[in-house]
Amino acid sequence: MTEKEKMIMGELYLPFGEELTDERQYAKEVLYEYNTLKPNEIEKRDKLLRGLFGSVGKKFYIEPPFRCDYGYNIHWGENSYANYNLTVLDCAKVSIGNDVLIGPNVNIFTAGHPISPSLRKSGFEFAKDIEIGDGTWIGGGTTINPGVKIGKNVIIGSGSVVTKDIPNNTIAVGNPCRVIKTID
To answer: Going from the N-terminus, what domains does the chain have, and what CATH number goes with each?
Structure first.
């Protein structure tokens, strides 16, 4: 099994082989172009992300600057928007639903490192999928950790650190992020 296959399956993998290094480099090249286009070159930016992402809705928008590892693991929903400085470490699948709003300076991290010091020193990583449901609003400065599923119609308060799943129709805040209210 290749390191990429291990990565996609959520197993421990080494990220420094030629295949994964080349794929990260390709994404960096695409994003360099994306992030340096003139503000009115919206169609060019849109085309670059359509070619990089695993899938996208007909209408979507991500304010530059934007960063990700690979791009092909990102699935971006219809009418979803991200403000400035979104970072997505997409070593595993990242699913953004429809009508999602993402504030500035949000981090979405599928990548993690083993607890064992010897495995970390050896360079091993793991990755777990992240899902953000339809109609959700992620407040600015939020960090979403590996393996988290955020339900539909959720509000995540600014500056939260989401370490566990958040159920549908709730407001959740804090570090660690916790549900404080149910929404009608």
So the answer is: 3-182 (2.160.10.10)
Q: Which of 59, 113, 120, 181 is catalytic?
A: 113
Task: State pLDDT tens for residues 138-181.
Answer: 999 999 999 999 999 999 999 999 999 999 999 999 999 999 99
Known catalytic residue at 75: no
In the 3-class helix/strand/coil scheme, how is the chain assigned residue by residue?
Answer: CCHHHHHHCCCCECCCCHHHHHHHHHHHHHHHHHHHCCCCCHHHHHHHHHHHCCEECCCEEECCCEEECCCCCEEECCCEEECCCEEEECCCCEEECCCCEECCCCEEECEECCCCHHHHHCCCEEECCEEECCCCEECCCCEECCCCEECCCCEECCCCEECCCECCCEEEEECCEEEEEECC
Regions of the chain with pLDDT less than 70: none
